[in-house]
Amino acid sequence: MPGATAQPIQDMRAYLEAQAGKDLLRFLTCGSVDDGKSTLIGRLLYDSKQIFEDQLASLEKDSRSMGTTGGAMDLALLVDGLQAEREQGITIDVAYRFFATDKRKFIVADTPGHEQYTRNMATGASTADLAVILIDARKGVLVQTRRHSFIASLLGIRHVVLAVNKMDLVGYDQGRFEEIVEEYRAFAAGIDLIDVAAIPLSALEGENVLTRGAHMPWYDGPTLMAYLESVEVGSDLAERPFRMPVQWVNRPSADFRGYSGTIASGRVACGEAVIVSPSERTSRIARIVTADGDLDDAVAGQAVTLCLEDEVDISRGDVLAAASAPPGVTDQFAAHIVWMHEHALMPGRSYVMKIGSRSVPAVVTDLKHKVNVNTMEHVAAKTLELNEVGVCNLALDHPVAFDSYGDDRATGGFILIDRVTNATVGCGMIDFGLRRATNLVWQEIETGKEARAAAKGQKPCILWFTGLSGAGKSTVADLVDRKLHAMGRHTYVLDGDNVRHGLNRDLGFTEADRVENIRRVAEVSKLFLEAGLLVLVSFISPFREERKMARDLVDEDEFLEVYVDASLELCESRDPKGLYRKARSGQIMNFTGIDSPYEAPENPELHLRTGDMDPEAAADAVIAELRTRGIL
Q: Which domains does the chain carry?
């Protein structure tokens, strides 16, 4: 009967409309391992009746076979969804859960407590409005508690719930609770976490989670759920200056051109003046187009296509902003970086920085200091290891639009990506642009490398010889240089040992110094190339990332990687400088092939196996390759 189905449909619509009217709170749970984060979220879901009957039946079964509560209901299993987590009893990934009460909707991120998974915690914090930081009442404030609190502060979270858990294991002792709260508040004040609500609870027993228990009559504050339902974390995004990173240039026909994206902050209306960053061209909004039709205005969070009154060159990665309050534009800035990879951050190494919808090559030019998360002390460092936080200066290949992270997360936050593996290795928060960057303008020189090379009757090129010490790089490079000189070619040889006597005499042989060694040589090689020369670079250059960085400085056909390949055993038997013998005896540290790795080229332009050919034949092979490529 038609009437029988109409009522359920109306009820469903009413329910959906009611849900749509509720505001949304994004929060994360964090802290040290085994503080009870998963159990707390499980308790919130269970007590707020967010679990279906089949889930409950599965939970009861899993609790008997994999639980850590002696066969009783193990609520942590509601969140520890990965098999590896269930077997180990820990959280190793970020688990997101949605639930709702009569007053509010919630998205909670359960983040891991182990130090090696701190990067996952940073991921969860990047979109959260509030952090629930759990502390085991028996253990108190730990290093990981401080680390997670500091990262939460860096990522712009200002509302914190200090959930002192497992109060049942300390006899619900008020003195222990107050001792922990006092210690934490003293630390939090130093990292600008002022709004801290402290709640004693037992997630396992459900005390002060949704309902009050009888064991802590001395606590008269709200339960955790009551606080989450009432805390005011209203976003001020709509009141900030207008920003919209362009994600797509929408050109379905010759009659329409629009710029699509999600408004990151502020509001915009038809007729308003906007600026395109970083080009700093201006125009006005002609139309605001959406799938449901045109709008007169739009606010933060809306996905729109903006049409401008003027023909302006705009591409993906540009930022449309309020002309009255434009973002900064720079190619150098200072930032806090949370390092998220096992391979350390190396100043001088080239990464890809993704900010908004733009990706641009970036180099950490200076690691000013790293931060001791226990004392907030600034510690001198040459590298940044996994989970460490540092303050760095970065230089980009091209200017980008930005705001400080404190003013706008969308245009002030970025990630760093490994250029070889495409792995995300770090996340950063921009502090400020470096003023000196705006004073530098590239000076065009009328006589270019093509003219200089033509005067010498050659094409400029970098021949990059790489391989283990003793493989024959310098010998082959010297022979090639002599042959080219005899042919009347203009060349120059940059040899690793020779350069370390002058330009790079201040560098040692740590991984960080080796990265800087190659960065400097790559820049010098480019200068020689601009002079129209054939540049022969003979360096071990053990890391692929730095060789790729050197290649990317010049045009594709101007760089030839020559892999001078000899086995470690053969190189050791030659040992012309006695270096392997010293390395084996411990007199030399960080020696490539012994206690420091060599990453062999994967696709070199020329592969010389010097164990099977003499230096003369190897040099002839290089000359032949140059002729084949039209360089000679």
A: 16-230 (3.40.50.300), 237-322 (2.40.30.10), 328-436 (2.40.30.10), 451-628 (3.40.50.300)
